[in-house]
Amino acid sequence: MKNAPTPTPLSKLLVSLRTNAGLSTWKLAQRSGIDRSNIRRIESGVLANLTPATMQKLADALDVEVERFYEAHWLTTGQPLPSLPTYFRTKYRKLTDHQIAEIQDFVDKLQSENK
Q: Which of 15, 86, 94, 98 has its CA 20 to 30 A from that of 7?
């Protein structure tokens, strides 16, 4: 007999947000464009390594900030949060590549000043 998947911070977050929104997995799949079977796999803890784009789709469908998914993903996988450019591309989709590069330069400058 196979062991049941262990719930993870990411799976618990998704179940909680979906349930609080009063959505079925089917309805969340419709809203997010993510296959229902993948939503069930995330909720069960079988699927844990999500792309920033997937996390953004879930956040948009559930009307929550994507940072909640980034944090839960990090707690689940131990993988670092998305890079600054990736974060700004998913969070602030209207920013141009040039604007994102300016933000990165600014952050780099701040970091070098605080060494």
A: 86
Closest CA to 69 of 6, 7, 11, 5: 11
Say whether pTM exceeds 0.90.
no
pLDDT digits (tens, 9 = 90+) for 28-62: 999 999 999 999 999 999 999 999 899 999 999 99
Where does the chain have alpha helices with state H?
Answer: 9-20, 25-32, 36-44, 52-62, 67-77, 84-91, 97-113
What type of residue sits at position 104? Answer: Q
Residue type, 21: A
Asked if residue 61 and residue 5 are part of one domain, the reply reads yes
Which tokens sit at 18?
């979906």
Same structural domain, 23 and 68: yes
Q: Look up the domain containing 1 and give its range.
A: 1-81
